Amino acid sequence: MSKSYRVAIVGASGAVGVEMLRVMERRNFPVSSLRLLASPRSSGKTLTFRGESHTIQPLHMNSFEDIDIAIFSAGGAISRDFAPEAVRNGAVVVDNSSAFRMHADVPLVVPEINGTDVKNHKGILANPNCTTAITLLALYPLHRQFGLKRIFASSYQAVSGAGARAIDELRHQTDAVAKHKPILKEIFPHQIAFNVIPHVDAFLDTGYTKEEMKMQNEGRRIMHLPNFKASVTCVRTPVYRAHSIAVSAEFEKPVNLEDARSTLSKAPGLQFLDDGYPMPLDSAGKDDCFAGRLRLDCAMENGLALWICGDQLLKGAALNAIQIAELL
C-alpha cells in the first residue's frame, strides 16, 4: 500500500472502536489523517494513535468531508443514518453493524473466505457477526473439502460482545458477589457473574434469537452457499473476552479425520490444535482463531464435531474490518 488514506472511525470510544485503532497501528495501516467520531457524551475525550493524541468529535452529517474510508462501529441505527451520507461525501464505508449485512448490493466479507467480493462494492462493505466470522474460518475450509450441508452449534459468548459497559457489569457483579453486596443489572436481563444466559439479542417468532439466525443467514452470503442450514443456541457467559463455539457439522461427502486435520492445519487465519483444545483465556488478544477437539460426529453420517475459539473484538470485529479496508 503506497497510498495513504484519510480515515474516520465512527464509534471510536467503544470497545471495538478502540480496538480498531490498535489494529491499524499494529498493522501499519496507511493513515494520512484520522478523524475520531462518537456520540456527544464522548465528545472531547482523547485517544492516542501512533503517539499522537486525537480528540473525539461529535458525529454529525458533515463529519465525512475529506474522508476516504469511514469505518463504523456504533450500532445499526447510526450506520443506517450516517453511512449513506459518508458515501455521498465520497468515502467508502466498512460497517461493523448488522444494518447492511443482508443487502444484496453490499458485500458481506471475511477476507480469508470471500475477499474478492470486495470489488463489487457500491460504497458500503459489511463486516459479519462476530460469532459467524470466527466459526466460518474453520467451517469454510472443511466445506471446500467435504461440501457443507448444515450445522448444529452452541456459542459461548464473552460479555465484551455486548460492549464496554457489559465488561464493567461483569466486573462489578463479580466484585459484588465476593463482597456479598446487591447485584445491579443494567446490560443483561439476569446476573451474568457466575451464570450463563441462553439469550443473546431479541427473540423471533420461531423461538430463535436474531443472533442465532445470523450464522445461517450471513453464512449463506459469505460462503456463497444458499442452502446452508444452521441451528444455533447463543449463550452469554461470564468471560471478558473471546467467544467459543461448539459445532457439529454434516457434509455431503464422506469425511475422515486425516483429511480434516490437514485441511484445518492449512486454513488461513486459523490455528489448529491437533493435540489439545483452545480456550477463550488463551485466545483473547490473538489475531488468529483456534480450533481443536476435532472428532467424527457419532450422531450423524458424514459429520465432524469441533470446538472453535476466537477474539470477537479482533477477528469478530475490529481486525476483520481493518482487513476489509486493506483489501480496498
Question: What does this entry look like structurally?
Answer:
The protein is α/β, with parallel strands linked by helices and 328 residues long. It folds into 2 domains: 134 residues, Rossmann fold; 181 residues, Dihydrodipicolinate Reductase, domain 2 (2-Layer Sandwich), CATH 3.30.360. Helix content is 31%, strand content 25%. It is built from 9 helices and 14 strands. The strands form 3 sheets. The protein has a 6-stranded parallel β-sheet with strand order 5-2-1-6-7-8, sandwiched between helices. β1, α1 and β2 form a beta-alpha-beta unit. α1 packs across α9 and α4 packs across α9. The chain is globular and about 55 Å long.
Q: pLDDT under 50 segments (min length 5)?
A: none
Categorize the overall geometry: globular
CATH homologous superfamily (4th level) name of the largest domain? Dihydrodipicolinate Reductase, domain 2
- Using the CA coordinates, give the radius of gyration: 20 Å
Top CATH class of the largest domain: Alpha Beta
Instruction: Kindly name the structural category.
Output: alpha/beta
Give, in spatial order, the strands making up the sheet with the most strands: 5-2-1-6-7-8
Helix/strand order, N-terminal first: EHEEEEEHEHEHEHHEEHEHEEH
**Care to count the β-strands?**
14
Overall tally of structural domains: 2
Share of residues in helices: 25-40%
